[in-house]
Task: inverse folding
């Protein structure tokens, strides 16, 4: 287990049959099995396993189904577990095992989706010593890859794999030497996984919900803005199929974040798009946010449900069952409604129009003040302006201020955060990080304050809605009332902490830092 | 790393059969599993097709001059490794008594393996000795195969007395019925009585079954050569219950 299993690739000149007879004439091999194998490789849409240096494959061999997680570096199996029934989609569908524990941290709430399939024939031989003890396994494999739609990718000529048995490594060395010296095979270095991925045209890590731009300070502001928007539009579009098929809740979440960022960029990046273009697209993009909102709400409550339930004393927990059923039913109906909208002419046309605007030159834009100015000049100015607004608004908030003033502040903080994230790459990373961190502490507080309020109100709304739809047991309403109470208490605590959080954000050190970076334009120096 | 001892004061009750079969089940579930054959008779080592060590090295081991790590052998099964028995284990009592803290030597030796294995299963020799006291102190759980009969009940009580007198705590006792013969009516009565007075008794039972005996012919766990059988079903149920109890 601890030693890895070297693999040898057959080049065109060799035939697997030739290798087999050569090995047999030299060593005592006993055929263990000949199996058709069918391996499907999985990862989440955003490549979480790959990012963690691993991959997962489902093996069908004879009547056995296995899930095996391997390391990317050398394809060495790390954990495996047998399963019955359907392929697990989420970590919580896995049978209890070490693999489940490991994968839960990596996958979190994302679903496993098939990447490609490797089908073929594998013959396994045990190499025996004089006591007929297995001291090494030799596998001869041949197969082809297929993409998720079943199209063939490439033929894998032949692989000889040696699986050592602990304490008997000398046999591994013996056979390795024989294969390289006598048979002149070449040991595979690194992982086959990347090669197989490439064979069906997949590029690892081709999707991430994080923004990762590479702008330089001297780029034109308009080019940068178009680039930001095109990236966000790509994100929106690539999340549509998974949202429509409800593969997991993160598709819709990422889609909505990209819409929100788009809307923020559209209004916050000034002087690069003509006013009428901005006015035309603002409501249409806003509509994308509206039609996806109700389904997201249901996801939020379903994801938080266990936490809600566990926040109640044991004996009240079952009383929330009707709420859970309500959420499930409404999640389904809201999702259906949303899908209808997403298939509508208006939806498709909005995205098509937006893309066509972004990719074609706009003669009207050249008359605008900022199109041809370097992004280093426009970005900092805009960021500093919003930053100053945040400071002013925050300083004006006292213990008596109404909740709305905090909500308003949150809005501007978010604008500020998006702007900094868009332009992050033109600033030295070591300077951006503390700015974002300072902002995040404040935003977390404001976010909590508002989200808890919204959740409490929503629960109230649900209670009324449930009443309209049928009998609701009074115990259920009571339990929901307890939830609302808990949420409001926590909201109160968040409000209580605001002053201190804001003071941290607005302290002199941070103020100087923001000023240096954005007002005095401390951008990256050209290399 | 969880350490599970399979022990009974009495010999020939199915300890080794249990240790080998449960270790195989643990490995099949994906847990990195080690079975340590502590019995110089080397039955578990034999079942797993490994040669026992002839040359005595265990004194060096207890003196810390040789680590367990280098002695481990892969079996014919994935995730299942074996620490083979050594003939020098015959003198293990003596070697243990030469050490400081003689009752805690096994635990000391096993500790460095905790990163490598999820489950360690100890196949123990019968009798009460310094070796068995080491096992009691190292194990998280002690599986006690018990053939239903008055003698077995007495043996179990002897063990309980010993543990109490020597203040061994923190080990989860899991006695279960082994080699249960359905045709013997006396056994049924004994099992009822013993279950009633010992609630810690597991409910899974291993029948007396020819397939278990065949382990010696195949030199493999039952699940390897006879997976679709009553005997294997019984071991699976036993393992499931043990896992449940360990949680
Ligand atoms: N459930 C069973 N049905 C039939 N035979 C069994 C069963 N369990 C064990 N045996 C057989 O009984 C004999 C003793 O079993 P085993 O070696 O497992 O017991 P043990 O307690 O380890 O013995 P020892 O004390 O000698 O180490 C072996 O020949 C074994 O094949
Ligand atoms: Mg034995």
Result:
């Amino acid at each position: 287990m601890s030693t890895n299993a070297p693999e040898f690739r057959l080049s065109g000149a060799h035939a697997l049959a030739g290798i087999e007879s050569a090995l047999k004439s030299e060593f005592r091999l006993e055929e263990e099995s000949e199996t058709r194998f069918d391996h499907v490789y999985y990862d989440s849409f955003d490549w979480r396993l790959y990012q963690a240096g691993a991959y997962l494959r489902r093996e069908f061999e004879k009547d056995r189904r296995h899930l095996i997680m391997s390391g990317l570096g050398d394809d060495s199996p790390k954990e495996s577990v047998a399963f019955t029934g359907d392929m697990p989609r989420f970590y919580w569908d896995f049978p209890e095992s070490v693999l489940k524990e490991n994968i839960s941290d990596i996958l979190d709430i994302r679903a496993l989706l098939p990447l490609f399939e490797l089908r073929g024939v594998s013959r396994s031989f045990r190499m025996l010593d004089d006591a007929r003890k297995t001291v090494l396994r030799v596998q001869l494999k041949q197969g082809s890859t297929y993409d998720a739609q079943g199209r063939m990718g490439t033929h894998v000529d032949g692989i000889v794999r040696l699986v050592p048995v602990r304490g008997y490594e000398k046999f591994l060395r013996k056979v390795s030497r024989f294969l390289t010296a006598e048979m002149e095979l070449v040991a595979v270095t690194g992982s086959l996984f990347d090669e197989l991925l490439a064979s069906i045209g997949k590029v690892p890590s081709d999707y991430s919900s994080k923004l990762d731009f590479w702008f330089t300070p001297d780029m034109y502001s308009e080019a940068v803005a178009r680039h930001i928007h095109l990236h966000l539009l790509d994100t929106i579009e690539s999340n549509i199929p998974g949202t429509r098929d409800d593969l997991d809740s993160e598709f819709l979440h990422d889609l909505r974040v990209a819409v929100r960022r788009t809307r923020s960029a559209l209004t916050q990046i000034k002087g690069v798009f003509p006013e009428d273009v901005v006015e035309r697209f603002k409501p249409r993009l806003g509509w994308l946010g509206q039609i996806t909102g109700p389904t997201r709400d249901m996801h939020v409550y379903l994801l938080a449900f266990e936490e809600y339930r566990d926040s109640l004393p044991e004996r009240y927990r079952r009383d929330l069952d009707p709420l859970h059923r309500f959420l499930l039913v409404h999640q389904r109906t809201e999702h259906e409604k949303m899908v209808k909208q997403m298939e509508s002419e208006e939806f498709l046309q909005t995205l098509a129009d937006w893309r066509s605007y972004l990719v074609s030159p706009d003669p009207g834009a050249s008359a605008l003040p900022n199109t041809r100015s370097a992004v280093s000049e426009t970005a900092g100015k805009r960021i500093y302006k919003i930053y100053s607004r945040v400071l002013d608004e925050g300083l004006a908030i006292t213990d008596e201020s109404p909740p709305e003033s905090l909500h308003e502040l949150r809005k501007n903080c978010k604008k500020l955060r998006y702007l900094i994230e868009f332009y992050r790459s033109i600033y030295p990373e070591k300077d951006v990080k503390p700015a974002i961190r300072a902002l995040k502490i404040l935003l977390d507080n404001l976010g909590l304050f508002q989200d808890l309020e919204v959740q409490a109100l929503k629960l109230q709304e649900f209670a009324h809605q449930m009443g309209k739809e049928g009998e609701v047991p009074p115990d259920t309403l009571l339990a929901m009332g307890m939830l609302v109470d808990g949420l409001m208490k926590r909201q109160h605590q968040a409000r209580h902490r605001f002053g201190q959080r804001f003071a941290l954000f607005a302290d002199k050190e941070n103020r100087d830092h923001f000023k240096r970076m954005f007002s005095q334009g401390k951008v990256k120096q050209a290399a | 790393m969880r350490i599970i001892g399979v022990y009974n004061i009495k010999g020939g009750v199915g300890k080794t059969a249990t240790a080998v079969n449960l270790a195989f089940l643990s490995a099949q579930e994906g847990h990195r599993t080690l079975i340590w054959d502590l019995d110089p008779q080397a039955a578990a080592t034999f079942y797993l097709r490994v040669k026992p060590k002839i040359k005595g090295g265990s004194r060096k081991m207890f003196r810390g001059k040789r680590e367990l790590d280098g002695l481990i052998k892969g079996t014919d099964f994935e995730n299942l490794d074996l620490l083979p028995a050594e003939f020098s284990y015959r003198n293990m009592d003596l070697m243990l008594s030469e050490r400081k803290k003689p009752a805690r030597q096994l635990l000391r030796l096993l500790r460095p393996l905790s990163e490598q294995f999820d489950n360690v299963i100890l196949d123990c020799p019968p009798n009460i000795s310094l070796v068995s006291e080491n096992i009691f102190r190292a194990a998280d759980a002690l599986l006690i195969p018990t053939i239903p009969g008055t003698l077995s009940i007495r043996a179990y009580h002897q063990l309980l007395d010993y543990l109490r007198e020597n203040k061994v705590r923190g080990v989860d006792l899991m006695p279960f019925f082994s080699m249960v013969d359905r045709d013997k009516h006396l056994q049924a009565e004994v099992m009822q009585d013993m279950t009633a007075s010992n609630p810690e008794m597991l409910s899974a039972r291993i029948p007396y079954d020819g397939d278990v005996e065949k382990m010696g012919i195949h030199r493999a766990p039952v699940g390897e050569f006879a997976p679709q059988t009553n005997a294997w079903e019984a071991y699976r149920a036993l393992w499931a219950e043990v896992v449940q109890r360990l949680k």
In short: The longest helix of chain B spans residues 230-246. The longest strand of chain B covers residues 172-180.
